[in-house]
Amino acid sequence: CPRDGGACPCRVSSVLNRDVKQFGKKHMFDASEETCWNSDQGTCQWVTLDFPRTVKVSQLHIQFQGGFSSRLCTLEGCRAGEELVKISDLYPEDTHAMQISFATFQVEETVLDKLKITFENSTDFFGRIVVYHLGVLGERL
Questions:
Q1: In a domain, 126, yes or no
Q2: Taking the model in full, what pTM does it have?
Q3: Quick check: is 1 in a domain?
Q4: By its UniProt entry, which InterPro entries does this protein fall under (predicted)?
């Protein structure tokens, strides 16, 4: 997906105080270390990516704010017109520090048109998730 998120539609579960300008989903793809997507509070925050073409996913890069990450991320995916199916569970690390933690996960190569990442268990007491960077590596088919 392009860094501006324009050609790869993305949806998120929530945005902190509905302040899309400051905390919106586009900030996960802008390659800036100053901006981020910040969810509102609540359990099971999520991000979905609808790829414009079928892709084979091999890696997922997530950069969280320490203290606002997820202990468990569930990956689901599907081909166009199909129901989401579980691909794998990921267990990011959280340092509970105010610096950014970066995680790269190898995922079993999966062919799909849609990817959903559910943040099952936030390290934040209120369930907020803060993501500075989200990248999906693989190849277009």
A1: yes
A2: 0.87
A3: no
A4: Galactose-bd-like_sf
Average pLDDT per consecutive 10 residues, the chain (141 residues; last block may be shorter): 57 96 94 93 94 89 88 93 92 55 66 94 94 88 87
- Whole-number Å distance between alpha carbons of 2 and 104: 19
Q: Are 24 and 83 in contact (CB under 8 A)?
A: no
Q: What residue has token string 């925050």?
A: 45
CB 96 within 8 A of CB 89: no
Question: Considering only CA atoms, which of 72, 118, 117, 119 is closest in space to residue 93?
Answer: 72
CA dihedral defined by 103, 34, 7, 89, rounded to 10 degrees? 20
Read off the CATH number of the domain in which 76 is found.
Answer: 2.60.120.260
Structural domain contains residue 3: no
